[in-house]
DNA sequence: CGTTTAGTTCGGTGAGTTCCGAACTAATTA
DNA sequence: TAATTAGTTCGGAACTCACCGAACTAAACG
C-alpha cells in the first residue's frame, strides 16, 4: 500500500487546488493529484479506490473523465489484466496550453469591452485612459511567456 | 433606458466569462458586466432589474455581494433617494491582485510537489528532469509581470 | 461450464445553489 | 397620517452535482 499520511495530506491540498484551476469534481481532482505525486509507476483501480476511499462507480466515472481529458493515461503489463494509471507525461504542457486558451479568451473580452466603450461611451472612455491598454499589454506579455515556456517544455520532452 | 441589443449580448458574453474567472453566480456576473460596460454614470437598482430581467430580491442579494467583494461601488445624488451603482474604479487593479494571490499559491503547490517527488521518488524525479523547474520559472516571470502591471496602474490611478 | 477479476452502467439520493415571490422596513412625500 | 419609494429578508421551489450501491458485462481462470 503506497500511501503515507504525508501523501494523503498533499493529495487533499493539491486536490483542492486542481478543483479550482482545472474545474474538476473533488474526487477527480484528488485522483489527478495522486497521479501527479507518482510520476511513473502507475496505480491500479483498487489502489485509487483505497487511497480516496471512494466507491467503485465514482472512481470509474471520474477516472474515465480524466482519461478523456488526457490528464491521465494508463499502461498494462503482459500477463496482468489490470490497468496501471498515471499522469499524462505531457500534463504540464497540457496545463500551460489550457492557460493559453484562457488568456486568448480574456484578450478577446478586453478588446470587446474597449471597443464598446470607445464607440458608445467615448467621453467616459477618455477618462479611464490608459488602464485597459496596460491590462492588454500585460495579457500579451503573459501570452508570450506561456508560448515560450510551452516551446521549451516541448523541446525537452520530444528529445 | 440604456440598453441596446448589442449591450445585452455583450452583458451575456462577459457575464459567462466573469462566472468562471470571478466565481460568481450568473446574475452577479451579469450585473458586474453591466457595471464594466458603463464606466462612469452608474445604474439604479431598477435599471439593473430591467436589464437583467431578474427579481428584486435576487438583484438585492447579488448586488450586495458585489459591494461586499468591492467589485462594485455606489454613489448618490443630493435630492435623490436612489443609489447609483458602478464598477469599482480599482476593479482592474483588484483583479490583478487576485491573480497575484493565485500565482503565489500555484508556486507553493509546485514547490511542494517537487519537494515530495525529490524525497519520495528520487529515481522518477530524475527522469522528469527540468520540466518542473521551467514551470516554476514561468510562474515567477508571470508574478513579476503582474507586480509591475499593478504598479503601473497604481501610478496612473493615484495621480 | 461456473467463478473470479476488472471494471461499467444505471437509478437514485442528499447537499448545495440560484433564483423567486411575499412580507417586511425605513425613509420620504402628499 | 396614508401612500409611495427603495430597497431587505425570509422561506421555499427548481435545478444541478457529486457520489453511492446494485446490477451488469466481458475476459480469463479452474
From TrEMBL, chains A, B:
<keyword id="KW-0804">Transcription</keyword>
<dbReference type="InterPro" id="IPR036390">
    <property type="entry name" value="WH_DNA-bd_sf"/>
</dbReference>
<dbReference type="InterPro" id="IPR052362">
    <property type="entry name" value="HTH-GbsR_regulator"/>
</dbReference>
<protein>
    <submittedName>
        <fullName>Transcriptional regulator</fullName>
    </submittedName>
</protein>
<keyword id="KW-0238">DNA-binding</keyword>
<keyword id="KW-0805">Transcription regulation</keyword>
<dbReference type="InterPro" id="IPR036388">
    <property type="entry name" value="WH-like_DNA-bd_sf"/>
</dbReference>
